[in-house]
What we know:
Helix content is 32%, strand content 29%. It is α/β, with parallel strands linked by helices. It is globular and about 45 Å long.
Amino acid sequence: MERVSEAAAGARVVPTREGYDLWASCYDGDANPLVILEEGHVMAALGEPGGVAGLRVADVGCGTGRHAARLARAGARVTAVDFSMEMLARAREKPGAEGVRFVEHDLRRPLPLGDASFDRVLCCLVLDHIADLGLLFGELGRICTCDGFVLVTVMHPAMMLKGVQARFTAPGSPEKVRVESVANQISDYVMAAVRAGLTIEAMREHAADDALAHRAPRAAKYLGWPMLLVMKLRRV
């Protein structure tokens, strides 16, 4: 994450798929404070590790499989979906990946997954790249069972007020690359969920603190600023 205003002067802006294909080789080693902050909240919401054993879990927008592989190791039956072939290749290399069904698919189209076929549906750090929120929220709800829940995480819209969006240094190069993003607001996420027939069971905003800055020094410049939005949703 870096300031868009700084990036505009020299960063190369690329489409989302191309950006994540490029980012894949260094994504897991990037010490990204948003990823570090998010992981703990996802684990808590799912009641890991014991809370997922035997459950059917969809990881929609799985990236390098950081959640999918861990959940499979904990005994979940995981289907992981992404449109970046390079991200999926990294995901397949992780311990536990042999227990994951991987699907290459563009989230701008309806999901190739059955109705009410998952007990837990994750969509993590994806929505700031999605323009048609209505379609995706509708699909997340459609594939979730009536007694299951959808867990959504996304970079807090307040970060864009600081000029921050997905950005990385290209592997083997000093070049800065900025991934195309959409300036969605909290109200956009809330209304998309409601219109998709989902009820908001919980919604929390998480800021950078000293503990995060200790683990990820880049977070120090955002202390006290909202970095992460988490929504827990159920079908009405």
